[in-house]
Amino acid sequence: MAYCSTRLKSRPTYSWVGSPLLDQKLHYQTYKEMSVTSNGCSTEIRIQVGQFVLVEGDDDENPYVAKLIELFEDVSEPYCKKRARVQWFIRFCEISVSKQHLLGRKPDVQEIFWYDYPACNSNIDAETISRPVQVVALAPDEVLPTALKNEKTFFVKLSWNEENFKPLSPELFAELNKLQEGSPRGQKPMKTKNSSIDSPSWTSAKHGVKRIELRHSTSKSHQIPTHLVTPRARKRLELGSFPVTPHTRISQQTSRVPLESPRRTKRKVASEITSPSKRSQPDGLQTSSPALKAPEKTGERRRSCAEQDKASHERPMILRTRVPALKTTEISQEITLDPLRGGKRSSVVPSVVLKPQKMKKREAQTPDAQDEATSTPHRIRRKSSLLTLNRIRQQLRFLDGSKNDKEEEEFLPAAEIADSDSEEEEASTPSLPRKTRSCVSRNLHSSTKSSLHTPSKTPKKTPKPRMPRSVTPQIRSRNLAVRGPASVLEEARLSLHVSAVPDSLPCREKEFQDIYNFVESKLLDHTGGCMYISGVPGTGKTATVHEVIHCLQQAAQANDVPPFQYIEVNGMKLTEPHQVYVQILQKMTGQKATANHAAELLAKRFRTQGSSQETTVLLVDELDLLWTQKQDVMYNLFDWPTHKEAQLVVLTIANTMDLPERIMMNRVSSRLGFTRMSFQPYTYRQLQQILMSRLKHLKAFEDDAIQLVARKVAALSGDARRCLDICRRATEICESSCQKPGSPGQVTVAHLLKAVDEMFSSAYITAIKNSSVMEQSFLRAILAEFRRSGLEEATFQQVYRQHVELCRMEGLPYPTMSETMAVCSHLGSCRLLPVCGSVVEHPPMNQEVRVEFPIRAHARVVGSIPSVGCAGGS
Amino acid sequence: MEVEDVSENVLQVHLNGLLQINDKIALKEITRQLNLENVVGDKVFGSFAENLSFILEALKKGDRTSSCPVIFILDEFDLFAHHRNQTLLYNLFDISQSAQTPIAVIGLTCRLDILELLEKRVKSRFSHRQMHLMNSFGFPQYLKIFKEQLSLPAEFPDKLFAEKWNENVQCLSEDKSVQEVLQKHFNISKSLRSLHMLLMLALSRVTTSHPFITAADLMEANQLCSMDSKANIVHGLSVLEICLIIAMKHLNDIYEEEPFNFQMVYNEFQKFVQRKAHSVYNFEKPVVMKAFEHLQQLELIRPVERTSVNAQREYQLMKLLLDNTQIMNALQKYPNCPTDVRQWATSSLSWL
């Protein structure tokens, strides 16, 4: 873990050298020089404006290369006040794989390209700059001078603008060369001294000369001055610089959170991109050197690329490592670079216009975004709908192809959306290409990218449940490992299990949208509210809400919405309605209290000012079970959100649409409000789509079979669970019916029909067929008695008389009362007869049993008797 | 996979609806059988609510790949459906349908309409996988079962006896009268439990002096099985009580099963006594009342409404719990029944 150790060892401090030049129109101060001192050692590096520097990215081996244009201090940034503006260079390995061929030749290891891409953010955190480096500009046909062939020198021949390679413009070439010559020592970046002298042309106004200490020895391999900040800085950089237009100062914002964990920062950054903001600086500085701005991205990319194998090598500067790096990270690059294309496409167009960034992004997104997105003006709406669509699309695509090359294309749309919205980082990692390369996340993303792209509805598992108790409940672990699915059918069965949560919920886009909008608006407004969601079981109510929450949690991590706390209670998982207080309190604070005390504490928390500013989202599943005589539980649940201080959003779920009107008092239902939503049962098309999405990659079912089951279930209940159950059963039937164990073949319509029959046909007829002779004749006696009396209920005595008659006619032995009673109670116990008068409860009284037949039971018996073989009289 | 392997790799939880009559007890029992952390010895600590959240937490934490599968076997499943809110069932089904600890729930019940007992949200979570075990065999198989049940196993220590015994059983199964008995029994009920009952009664007659079951034993056992219990009670009644029952029977005939009270029965009885004064002793009213109450205690008659303290017992409405045919059959077998009484039983107008 060389990486870790180096990182820990050197935590450099950055300080300005010289007095600030106050920018006339800006509220920040610019500097010409910066010194980097490592805590651990006494070395100091000076970095001046105009020098070429290495900027830390994700990959310590291949840091980004950039030219420092400006150093300034931004007071508006709370954390990272030291900012730098750079012109990026890009390494060959950072260019998207699909475009690398445009070069038409093999690049030299040390070759870098002027990144002429204005959309790339050039504003970075100064503390990510690690040290100076030498860059030499060469004519396109010039051969790399052997003298420069040391590992620490880069040379530039061409510029890259994300479309094609171009020779450097003469002015640029001259400028670069001038720099080079002007700072001969700049060519040896490892020497610390040169940093201060590197580019005299740029450092015209030097104030105060500080001592220059040897910070980097020539070997310099182990001392990485900036390391502590680096991992974050890198990521910040990546994100900030990524597709953003040059006018915005996002990277500045993004880099201000150095103390947070890398991941976290990432999200922050992303969110800041979307909500750009008040800090709209008059981009005088930035725009002043448009040419210099573009390469920013290059540098980053290069760096991130290089960093990948940092762990194995010593210094980011070493160029030879880049090649292996390229190889090892091929896959991730494939993915990660593609989004860039998308991002570029979208951002190039609007980049010229000065606009609030959000607007720009939106604009950028629309061309390649889905049609639905454009129609709605409200940002939320569009965003979330895109999200869902994107998710579904991703999932479907993912099912289609399992090869990398396919994935590459698949992820494109995701990237486009994400880099404009930057909301769904988790789901669409590729949008942030460098993230993939980041040391932390690289493994995850590259190895399990498929699963990670849409982690969607598994949040249940990931957040560790709060366990305030000392004892942690645990089922013992299994002895035998789970066997993987052996056949297609087994695999199908796995993916058909209800628990195999799909990556997205097909057919619930609208509902998702509405709930999402509702909660998001409440979150953004810092208000509270209630929503009532109804629908018959198995229509995806809870799943949809979970998905919404998951998306919102991601959005919160990306800072798109304020962070919120999510609590879920289920009426069915409570022993008693008042326990809901205990559960809520425990999940909110970890406290344990009795129901009454918990109610008080919660009321205090929600009704008084001053508690945390975080909004709480409360999901109450199976609301009807919280009904009490006084309805105080429901009243409280709906009353809290009405308080301004509570910031409580309550989502309630129940089965019946008219629950508020039916069981709630006026004062309760009035507080619940009229934000209602009802989930309609799935139609057969929707069920079909659900099944298809789960089975897409498996050739386990015939298409007709899927349609059949969808239609059957839709006609019966529209319950998705039922649909899945039937399909699972059908796979079993298919498996058992097939003789050859190896190749069970596909599930056909016949198998499905059998499964449907099994589940929906009632067992009454079989039961009657298999009952004893006496039982059958007793049933016929009942029918005869019904016919005689014209009523649909009869006392046991009446039936007994008929029964005796019948037995006499059939030549059966005379049945005694006790025997007949036994027959009757047997029929009653398996509910072939609905026996009232409590045969079971009061055995001594059973003489006077009334055998009552509700109409349905009657119909059932009448219907089934003929199948027994003898029509009951008449 | 071998059965032992499987049983080693799963946890089993056995519950019975007759024992775990509510969710609170059931949860404690589950916790105990799973041997979770809040179990000390045989005691489970914590309140009902705590236990519930504890178990849910425990089951939620696991996942398919790491946790040991749990099989829940719920005997008398229909009784669990009567628990409040069906909390236990909902949670078990919910866990089985979500990516938590892998569990399987097996419910055993004799009720065919079990699905109708489940609440709709519980029902939706139920996989609808039903297996019906029916007694679908015919009489030949029944006979075979009879033989198998009676035969002594090969490892019986006394080989000689076992051989003889089995021979005897074989003979029995071929005996006409035995087959008749069995057929009759089979007609009434196919359940093996009732067959066992029959065979147990026959077997209990086996002694050292009477080492083998005979057809007669079986026939007698069958008679015991099919005996009418009410008729047996009637056999033990006094003449006065029989007279009262006959009076009630007539009242039933006249008023078409409308309830009657003691006074009506007493009047009817008085009419009979006046006609046949010589053959039946005229008991005093309190004595007749006592006999009437005795019949009530034997549950041959039953008050229509609950006995209230205020109501006069003479006027309380009663119903007869015997059928006419039962009375007549019982009378035929009744020892030393006066002829007049018997005649009166056949017709209320016999004095004409």
Automatic annotation (TrEMBL), chain A:
Primary residence: nucleus
Biased composition (Low complexity): 444-457
Compositional bias segments (type: Polar residues): 192-204, 272-290
SUPFAM superfamilies, A to Z: P-loop containing nucleoside triphosphate hydrolases (SSF52540)
Keywords: ATP-binding, DNA replication, DNA-binding, Magnesium, Metal-binding, Nucleotide-binding, Nucleus, Phosphoprotein
Region: Disordered, residue numbers: 181-318, 355-387, 413-479
Biased composition (Basic and acidic residues): 294-317
InterPro entries: AAA+_ATPase, AAA_lid_10, ATPase_AAA_core, BAH_dom, BAH_sf, Cdc6_C, ORC1/CDC6, P-loop_NTPase
Gene Ontology cellular component list: nuclear origin of replication recognition complex
Pfam name, any one: AAA
Domain BAH stretches: 45-171
Ranges annotated as biased composition (Basic residues): 458-467
Coiled coil start-end: none
Positions with biased composition (Acidic residues): 418-427
Subcellular location per the Swiss-Prot or TrEMBL entry: Nucleus
GO biological process: DNA replication initiation; mitotic DNA replication checkpoint signaling
Domain of life from the UniProt record: Eukaryota
A GO molecular function held by the record: metal ion binding
Oligomeric form and interacting partners: Component of ORC, a complex composed of at least 6 subunits: ORC1, ORC2, ORC3, ORC4, ORC5 and ORC6. ORC is regulated in a cell-cycle dependent manner. It is sequentially assembled at the exit from anaphase of mitosis and disassembled as cells enter S phase. Interacts with CDC6 and KAT7/HBO1. Interacts with LRWD1 predominantly during the G1 phase and with less affinity during mitosis, when phosphorylated.
Primary role: Component of the origin recognition complex (ORC) that binds origins of replication. DNA-binding is ATP-dependent, however specific DNA sequences that define origins of replication have not been identified so far. ORC is required to assemble the pre-replication complex necessary to initiate DNA replication.
Family label: Belongs to the ORC1 family.
Protein name, UniProt field: Origin recognition complex subunit 1
Protein species of origin: Myotis davidii
Automatic annotation (TrEMBL), chain B:
Record's signal peptide: none
Entry annotated with the keyword Acyltransferase: no
GO BP annotations listed: DNA replication initiation
Domain Origin recognition complex subunit 4 C-terminal, residue spans: 144-331
Localisation: Nucleus
Keyword Metal-binding belongs to the record: no
Coiled-coil annotated residue ranges, if any: none
Superkingdom of source: Eukaryota
InterPro entries: ATPase_AAA_core, ORC4, ORC4_C, P-loop_NTPase
First-listed, main subcellular location of the protein, grouped into a coarse class: nucleus
CC annotations in GO: cytoplasm; nuclear origin of replication recognition complex
Gene Ontology molecular function, alphabetical: ATP binding; ATP hydrolysis activity; DNA replication origin binding
Keywords: ATP-binding, DNA replication, DNA-binding, Nucleotide-binding, Nucleus
Annotated ranges, domain ATPase AAA-type core: 34-129
Main function: Component of the origin recognition complex (ORC) that binds origins of replication.
Record-stated family: Belongs to the ORC4 family.
Subunit structure: Component of ORC, a complex composed of at least 6 subunits: ORC1, ORC2, ORC3, ORC4, ORC5 and ORC6. ORC is regulated in a cell-cycle dependent manner. It is sequentially assembled at the exit from anaphase of mitosis and disassembled as cells enter S phase. Interacts with DBF4. Interacts with POLQ.
Name of the protein in question: Origin recognition complex subunit 4
